[in-house]
Amino acid sequence: MKLGTTFARIRHSLLAMMWRSVVAFWLVALLLISVPGADWAFVVGAGLRGAVRPAVAGLVTGYAAITLVVAAGVGALVAGRPAVLTGLTIVGGLYLMWHGAMTVARPAVPVAGVGGRAFAQGVGVSGLNPKGLLIFLALLPQFTEPSAALPIAVQIGVLGLAFILTCAGFYLIVGSLARTVLRARPAVARAVSRASGVAMVLVGAFLMVERLLSA
């Protein structure tokens, strides 16, 4: 009986350590998410088009795919192959630049939503963003507890879920605010949309140049 109680206490302690890691990771993730970047630019444009929910659903789906890749150990294999990582960065950077250029050419104004297209674009913006993969590879392992009761893959899944839920809540607010604030200002909305497109182009170009210089 005493032995069972001891094991239960150890298990409880290890799980408590794991949840402390989740909270610590969540605070770091919130900081990263709050910094404007490609996701912000995309969500603002989606908000103007009245497609906040499908756009955010697409973003979190892309991050969910990255979480599964990292949890399965595939992400570490990709990170260990510079040529593959460089190719991924180029593809992701070109996609962001293309999407940003299209946004500049056809700036959004507050209209009724276009869900399916926004969802697919959201998956591309997050799932093809090599910066997202690198963040997961660099951050997630640091917040896992090898001695915890949960396997490392499960811990990565839990941490990834915390990131995904935070993304969903934060970007739903950003997109909704963009639409609400700019709904009655079509000229300002077009200017903001163009600025968002330029931001995506710059982010895509920066990722490609940074990777090529470090390759």
Key descriptive features of the protein:
single chain, 215 residues, mainly alpha, 9 helices, 0% strand
Walk me through the structure.
- The chain is mainly alpha-helical and about 220 residues long.
- It has 9 helices and no strands.
- Helix 2 runs antiparallel to helix 9.
- The longest helix is centred in the N-terminal third of the chain and has 33 residues, at about 1-35.
- The protein is globular, with a radius of gyration of 20 Å.
Termini distance? 58 Å
Give the helix tally: 9
Into which percent range does the helicity of residues fall?
Answer: over 70%
From N to C, what is the helix and strand string?
Answer: HHHHHHHHH
Q: Overall 3D geometry?
A: globular
Report the C-alpha radius of gyration, rounded: 20 Å
What is the averaged pLDDT score? 75
Poorly predicted runs are none
Helix and strand content put the structural class at mainly alpha
Which percent band covers the strand fraction? under 5%
Main sheet makeup: none
- The strand count comes to 0
Protein name: Lysine transporter LysE
Membrane topology: Multi-pass membrane protein
Keywords: Cell membrane, Membrane, Transmembrane, Transmembrane helix
Pfam families: LysE
Question: What does this entry show, briefly?
Answer:
By secondary structure, the protein is mainly α. The chain has helices at residues 2-34, 38-48, 52-71, 74-79, 82-105, 115-127, 130-139, 152-182, 186-214. The protein is built from nine helices and no strands.
